[in-house]
């Protein structure tokens, strides 16, 4: 067990690598109840989110639709990354990171007050993420036929209240699946029912190797308040259009774009028998230096992969300092793995 | 709870030692160390013939979580390494006191066991985390 944002959480229930493979080949369940579910209620909610989020909440027009976004400070630094669900015109739901909960609530609360938006932290809800190619199907076996049909009909990045559960077709593994929010008291029963339906219990360790293979950032490692989305591989989540939308951080990001962005995020693949870890030094010959922001051993590729922030002029070859040695690594464009298969050309 | 065979000796850095009938000493990492490290993915082994000082870092076990040095518990010469670990490091996870052995050493001096822990003392150490 490890402390994770104030929560006692298992790194693995058994073998982390077996848990990883279970999600790539079948289905696994993660307890992600540490994530903070925050409901925003009131007529001013859309206006508030339009100002707070770098992605455009205007894209959410249908109830149940979801959007991934960064929430920025005035300097364009990332306060947090989150998913926002549109439940009703006066009711949106955010899922934010556990470690950033208090500062997020303070930041959102400060901007919500003048707009007559009420914050409701849904401490009554637990959240289980069921992920893998068989995740939806196996979850559906636990539902009534009517509820199962509704759940199976969800499109990617769409959620709905189905009976007592809020079910969304989202996740952090690079596989299909559901994230299910339900009354905290019902979570253990659902967990056991999922296990009985052939869904393997998975810990934080597998969650990290899965998200890294999928090329997804981890807040606090791959981006934070000192880095912008534009240097963190998240430019695709920043909606500069429409130009009149004055989201917080916009001016800073536009200024950064105008000056030129000095750093970029790349994926790294190591062909040596060693493992990339965060904070290792990246040496780019003739260009400069960067840093590994996340690294791990990829169970699917059977070699080490990582994310790094490097000078924008970095080409395809770098060196990483690992245990006092400079080892060659290749830069690639994440994801490393897509739907259980390698998504990059592996070095031989 | 981790398994701590009573007939072995242990170190504070979580290696175990087994004296074989020919006088050589087999080294591995304890069940406790294995559990702390999680799934092993790489093992870096010393060359047979290498002469080690007591306490010298001589191998590396790397897990999904962290890289960890293996230290020579005694002054010795490396006489054999478990070459299977290169392809199947998970042998350490599966059988840390058997098929997951790491290397065999020939002690430089007889009865050089000063500073090693009994299973009982190691159990107390492991219980502290």
Task: List the SSEs and their pairings.
The complex is a heterodimer of chains A (348) and B (129).
Chain A: E1 2-4, E2 7-9, H1 16-25, E3 28-31, E4 36-41, H2 45-52, E5 66-72, E6 78-88, E7 91-96, H3 101-112, E8 118-121, E9 125-131, H4 135-140, H5 145-152, E10 159-162, E11 165-168, E12 177-183, H6 187-196, E13 200-202, H7 204-213, H8 250-259, E14 263-270, E15 281-284, E16 288-298, E17 303-311, E18 317-322, E19 325-332, E20 337-338, E21 341-342
Parallel strand pairs in A: 3-13
Antiparallel strand pairs in A: 1-2, 3-9, 4-7, 4-8, 5-6, 6-7, 9-12, 10-11, 11-12, 14-17, 14-19, 15-16, 15-18, 16-17, 18-19, 20-21
Helix pairs in contact in A: 1-7
Chain B: E1 9-10, E2 15-19, E3 25-29, H1 31-37, E4 40-44, E5 51-52, E6 57-63, E7 67-71, E8 76-81, H2 84-87, H3 90-94, E9 103-107, H4 119-127
Antiparallel strand pairs in B: 1-2, 2-3, 3-9, 4-6, 5-8, 6-7, 8-9
């Amino acid at each position: 067990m490890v402390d994770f944002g104030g929560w006692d959480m298992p790194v693995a229930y058994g073998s982390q690598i077996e848990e990883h493979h279970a999600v790539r080949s079948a289905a696994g369940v993660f307890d992600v109840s540490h994530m903070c579910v925050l409901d925003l209620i009131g007529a001013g909610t859309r206006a508030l989110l339009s100002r707070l989020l770098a992605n455009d909440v205007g894209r959410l027009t249908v109830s149940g639709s979801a959007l991934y976004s960064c929430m920025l400070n005035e300097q364009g630094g990332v306060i947090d990354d989150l998913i926002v669900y549109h439940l009703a015109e006066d009711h949106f739901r955010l899922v934010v990171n556990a470690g950033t909960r208090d500062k997020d609530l303070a930041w959102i609360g400060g901007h919500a007050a003048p707009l007559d938006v009420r914050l409701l932290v849904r401490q009554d809800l637990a959240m289980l993420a069921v992920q893998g190619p068989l995740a939806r199907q196996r979850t559906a076996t636990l539902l009534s036929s009517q509820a199962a049909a509704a759940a199976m009909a969800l499109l990617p990045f769409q959620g709905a209240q189905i009976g007592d559960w809020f079910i969304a077709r989202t996740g952090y593994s690079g596989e299909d699946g559901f994230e299910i929010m339900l009354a905290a008291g019902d979570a253990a029963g659902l967990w056991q029912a999922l296990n009985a339906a052939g869904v393997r219990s998975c810990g934080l360790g597998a969650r990290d190797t899965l998200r890294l293979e999928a090329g997804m950032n981890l807040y606090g490692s791959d981006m934070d308040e000192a880095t912008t989305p534009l240097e963190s591989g998240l430019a695709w989540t920043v909606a500069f259009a429409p130009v009149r939308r004055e989201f917080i951080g916009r001016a800073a990001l536009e200024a950064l774009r105008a000056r030129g962005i000095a750093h970029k995020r790349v994926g790294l693949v190591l062909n040596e028998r060693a493992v990339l870890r965060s904070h290792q030094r990246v040496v780019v010959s003739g260009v400069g230096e960067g840093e590994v922001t996340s690294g791990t051993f990829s169970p699917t590729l059977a070699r080490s992969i990582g994310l790094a922030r490097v000078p924008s002029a970095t080409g395809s070859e770098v060196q990483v300092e690992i245990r006092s040695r400079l080892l060659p690594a290749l830069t690639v464009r994440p994801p490393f793995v897509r739907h259980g298969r390698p998504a990059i050309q592996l070095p031989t | 709870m981790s398994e701590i065979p009573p007939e072995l000796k242990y170190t504070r850095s979580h290696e175990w030692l087994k004296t074989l009938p020919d006088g050589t000493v087999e080294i591995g990492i304890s069940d406790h160390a294995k559990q702390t490290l999680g799934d092993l993915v790489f093992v870096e082994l010393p060359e047979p013939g290498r002469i080690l000082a007591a306490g010298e870092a001589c191998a590396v076990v790397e897990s999904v979580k962290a890289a960890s040095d293996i230290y020579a518990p005694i002054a010795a010469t490396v006489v054999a390494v478990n070459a299977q670990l290169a392809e199947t490091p998970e042998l350490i996870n599966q059988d840390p006191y058997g098929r997951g052995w790491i290397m065999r050493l020939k002690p430089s001096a007889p009865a050089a066991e000063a500073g090693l822990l009994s299973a009982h003392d190691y159990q107390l150490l492991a219980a502290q985390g």
